[in-house]
Amino acid sequence: MSNLTCGLYGYMGAKGADAENYSEMFRRINQNGEKITRFVDTNFGAGNIIAAACDYEERVSNDINENIALLAKMVSSAETRAQVLDILLDMEVSREVYKMCKDALKSREDVPDIKKATYIWYLSEYSFNGNSRNFSSNHRVDRLFHKVQKLSAFDGVEILNMDMVDLLEQEKKNPARMEKTMYYLDPPYLDNKARYAHNMTSEAEHKRLLEVMKDIPNIMISGYDSELYDHILCKEYGFHKYSMGDKWISMNAVSFGSIRKQKTEYVWTSYEVRGPYQQ
């Protein structure tokens, strides 16, 4: 289905090529036998999932991180994407340029969106663990060149910059549209140690998210094994739970070439998934 298997940039914990497996589990026919034509991804991240969902007629992707949302918006238009790439591909990969990008984003000066998106992408592409914090000399510019021809997978995606709970509450105000929409949630996992800019480390935050999922007919959420998720989603809502196998823990590497830890990921769905994911 997808034209893209590596996202805009890489980091341990991103869905990457595995996005195809998640896409196979998305619902495309609702419980009434009607075609699902709209897809909403509440967490853009590196963009792997929204690219893999390219067979839906309408796609919406959200991220609470303002910088990620801006980059996603620039990439979802062929015109602005070309402008960003013209600058990005001409930039030297060095510690000095990396620092320049960080300083520009921290300054109070008004940086045009095209340049700002370029700096955001540069920091993500050439940072250790993909976390935009520290420069890594182990990244190669040719990896970025290989992605360029695949970026059309983002064309036409509507980009939002909202809290995902607020987004879902807004969606529930339009039940008819909701019936023909597939929702995928990939929030920061409970008990994660990734140090996201907008993290969710408390049970209260996750409970707030799970509660808004009630009565949304076509929805899937990813996470680590959790009694809280099992109780609310499976016991109270009647959701189904599937193992996705062991995955790299987000931003877990401590040095280049080090052994990266893995942990089993699960998905909970409001509908039954048939095929190899059945348990």
Summary, kept brief:
The chain is 35% helix and 14% strand. It contains eleven helices and seven strands. Mean pLDDT is 86; it is low at 252-256.
Properties at a glance:
279 residues, alpha/beta, seven-stranded mixed sheet, 11 helices, 35% helix, globular
Protein architecture, described:
35% of the residues lie in helices and 14% in strands. It is globular and about 55 Å long. The chain has eleven helices and seven strands. The chain is of the alpha/beta class and 279 residues long. It has a seven-stranded mixed beta sheet with strand order 3-2-1-4-5-7-6, sandwiched between helices. Mean pLDDT is 86; it is low at 252-256. The two termini are 25 Å apart. It has helices spanning 19-25, 48-52, 66-75, 78-88, 95-106, 113-125, 141-148, 164-171, 175-179, 203-212, 227-236, and strands at 38-41, 58-62, 158-160, 181-185, 219-224, 240-248, 262-269.
State the order of secondary-structure elements, H for helix, E for strand: HEHEHHHHHEHHEHEHEE
Alpha-beta content class: alpha/beta
**Percentage of β-strand residues:** 5-15%
What is the alpha-carbon Rg in Å? 19 Å
* Number of contiguous helices: 11
> Mean of the pLDDT scores?
86
How many strands, what sense, and barrel or not for the largest sheet? 7 strands, mixed
Measured as a percent range, the helix fraction is 25-40%
How many strands in all?
Answer: 7
Separation, N- and C-terminal Cα atoms? 25 Å
Strand arrangement across the biggest beta sheet: 3-2-1-4-5-7-6
Overall body shape:
globular
Uncertain regions: pLDDT < 50 for 5+ in a row? Answer: 252-256
